[in-house]
């Protein structure tokens, strides 16, 4: 879509200048730079790792729905218990297959 810089600036302002989209993908700044927080994939995190979800992949819509159904979204606080099992809001949650490579956590 072709839109003017002025229109983009207005949209950005109305949205509160978000740094990421709803799935956690970085939104470039007006100068084109992108700020990325240090992260670790859920599957690479060690048991006991306490983190906040930074990004959830939207490449597979069915997997995204399954992850969301587990109560996991950008900003959710989690604790890794063991492979494919985390704690969300004090309750253990079994993750769907593929989630380990589709969820990015704070490092």
UniProtKB/TrEMBL annotation:
Residues 40-107 form the Ferrous iron transporter FeoA-like domain. SMART domains: FeoA (SM00899). Pfam families: FeoA. GO terms for molecular function: protein dimerization activity; transition metal ion binding. This is Metal-dependent transcriptional regulator. It comes from Candidatus Microbacterium stercoravium.
């Amino acid at each position: 879509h072709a839109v003017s810089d002025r229109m983009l600036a207005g949209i950005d302002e109305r949205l509160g200048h978000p740094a990421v989209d709803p799935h956690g993908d970085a939104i470039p700044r007006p100068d084109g730079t992108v700020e990325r927080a240090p992260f670790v994939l859920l599957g690479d995190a060690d048991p006991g790792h306490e983190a906040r979800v930074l990004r959830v992949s939207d490449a597979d819509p069915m997997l995204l729905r399954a992850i969301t159904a587990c109560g996991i979204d950008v900003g959710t606080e989690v604790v890794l218990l063991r492979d494919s099992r985390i704690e969300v809001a004090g309750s253990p949650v079994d993750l769907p297959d593929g989630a380990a490579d589709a969820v990015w956590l704070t490092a």
